[in-house]
Write a structure and sequence with these properties.
Blueprint (H helix, E strand, L loop, with lengths): L8 H14 L2 H25 L7
Protein name: Membrane protein
Organism: Streptomyces graminofaciens
Keywords: Membrane, Transmembrane, Transmembrane helix
Length: 56
């Protein structure tokens, strides 16, 4: 794997954004990862908070 050239952060970020704009492949994967993270957070919150609803 290649070595990244030493560019200022703004120039590197601009180059990365333009490269990401040309390649639409990872977009779907990132959407799936975000949806799974949100659903997992909701389920984890529900699982942890359901223990507080006890009728003693």
């Amino acid at each position: 794997m290649g070595h990244l050239p030493h560019l200022p952060a703004a120039a590197w970020l601009t180059d990365a954004a333009s490269a990401a704009g040309k390649e639409q492949g990872p977009g779907n994967l990132l959407r799936i990862v975000l949806v799974v993270m949100v659903l997992g957070s909701v389920l984890l919150g529900w699982f942890l908070l359901r223990g507080y609803k006890r009728d003693d």
